[in-house]
Amino acid sequence: MTKTDQKIKVRRINFGHESEEKRHYFRDNPIMTHFMNSLHTVFPDGERLFIRSVKYFDKEIQNPELKERVKAFIGQEMQHGMQHERFLQALDKMGLESTAFEEWYAKNAYVSKEDKMSAERLLLTPIAKLFGEKAGERMALSATAALEHYTATLGEVVLKGEDYYMEGMPENLKQLFLWHAAEEVEHKSVAFDVFQEVAKGNYAERQLGFAFASFFLAYYIGIGWVHYLTHDKELTLEQLVKAVPPAIPVYFNLLKDVIGGALEYLKPGFHPDQMDNDELARSFFERYGSEFQAKSA
């Protein structure tokens, strides 16, 4: 395990974002707003996958330092899911049917009693049947480690380009996304270390998890984006057309930067701690320390 002095801390903060009333809150742009709404909706159940996948191997962790990091990782992910779900209440009040989409997503993306053909089950069931239950659990952890690399990369990109990517975002929602981004950087290597050191995952399994995670992430964020655009009954064709030109350069740059960082995962000797972004998280929490302390639950 590559050592890092980045401390993983669980922060319980009341952002006050659940009462947002402006429909197109991000630069008055429906395309950019509904992309963010999709992230709000897919994050909570994604966090539950991360927690579940790491917990598969919790009892096998012998390293006390890693065990403590896993505990903090789970605490952070629980807070992320809770905070994003609170905002769905505001979206429901706007008639955007956020809770309904979240329920559909949870059923179709993850293992559930109701849907035996969920995306997670389609990945894990054949592997478990061919190679055993532990191989299936290891593959879930592999996908989690890959998704954690994506979120840490996204976190780095957004923290570095805060003025560019967060311009026009309401302050409470800006703080929420940057807080989430900084904590993703803090715990960027936890799932990877459990996969590599405890689950004994190999390079082929790591890349299979990365391929699945890449498709999984793009597909469901895209579906959520379409859901919000089509359920926005106040959105006119004229507004939609006007929203396209200012959105294109933002998402082109975001995609370019995230993909560039994500592809580092393909290197055989890669480890998340090689990402030189710890200072971004530290400086963010130093900047907002007193304000977050006042908002702490």
Layout of helices and strands:
Blueprint: H1 30-55, H2 64-93, H3 98-109, H4 119-131, H5 133-160, H6 162-165, H7 171-186, H8 190-198, H9 203-231, H10 237-262, H11 278-295
Helix pairs in contact: 1-2, 1-5, 1-9, 2-8, 3-9, 4-5, 5-7, 5-8, 5-9, 5-10, 7-11
Relevant terms:
mainly alpha
Account of the 3D structure:
This protein is mainly alpha-helical. It has one domain. Helix content is 71%, strand content 0%. The two termini are 33 Å apart.
The class by helix and strand makeup works out as mainly alpha
Biggest sheet statistics: none
Q: Please give the count of helices.
A: 11
Beta fraction: under 5%
Shape type: globular
Helical content class: over 70%
Radius of gyration: 19 Å
- Could you tell me the number of beta strands? 0
Report, as a whole number of angstroms, the end-to-end distance: 33 Å
Query: Low-confidence parts, pLDDT < 50 over ≥5 residues?
Result: none
What are the secondary-structure elements, in order, as H or E? HHHHHHHHHHH
Mean pLDDT: 90
Multimeric state? single chain
Number of domain modules: 1
Brief summary:
The chain has 297 residues and is mostly helical. It contains eleven helices and no strands. Helix 3 packs antiparallel against helix 9 and helix 5 (133-160) crosses helix 9 (203-231).
